[in-house]
Write a structure and sequence with these properties.
The chain is of the alpha+beta class and 162 residues long. The chain contains four helices and eleven strands; from the N terminus they run βαβββββββαββααβ. The longest helix has 18 residues. The model has no long low-confidence stretch (mean pLDDT 89).
Length: 162
């Protein structure tokens, strides 16, 4: 699947978090990890040629350099977070030897409230323009989101590694 390299996203040094209504975008990729929490409706997504549907209270995780795009056939509302891995060095180090087994958190039971709360807090301090957020505050909520997703989307060794 072809997509364009989103240089503007990779030129940002800080996390960005914003809300989107009826999320739709062309196929693209970047080094940032992208997290999309669907708060209303549903979105169709494609990650490296594999398609699915994310519904209300479900989370899509897009690893670095995965070609992805979204469409909203009906209506949707979502919170989008992009995280430059250099901003969270211990997580970057973890992902150097691990990958996510799943990219869709379909049934977020106990962690749903915590992850939504953290994303809403990040949306308040992380602009979509890549300005520097209050560092301890932003990193605390980022690591909370990443830890919850790592637990529920199962970090594993990439295929082919021993």
């Amino acid at each position: 699947m072809d997509g364009y390299y989103e240089h503007s996203r990779d030129s940002e040094k800080y996390p960005c978090c914003w809300e989107l209504v009826n999320n739709t975008c062309f196929a693209h990729f970047h080094s940032c990890v992208e997290i999309v929490y669907v708060t209303e409706g549903e979105m169709e997504f494609t990650l490296n040629g594999q398609s699915g549907i994310a519904r209300e209270n479900q989370v899509i995780l897009v690893p670095s350099y995965v070609v992805h795009y979204y469409t909203t056939p009906g209506s949707s509302r979502s919170i989008v977070l992009t995280v430059p891995l250099d901003y969270v060095p211990s997580f970057r180090k973890l992902l150097a030897h691990r990958t996510f087994r799943k990219q869709l958190w379909e049934e977020p039971p106990e962690g749903e409230r915590e992850i939504l709360h953290s994303l809403e807090k990040l949306r308040g301090v992380c602009s979509s323009m890549g300005r520097k957020p209050p560092e301890l505050f932003a990193k605390g909520y980022l690591y909370t989101v990443l830890a919850i997703l790592s637990e529920h989307l199962e970090l594993t060794e990439p295929a082919g590694e021993i």
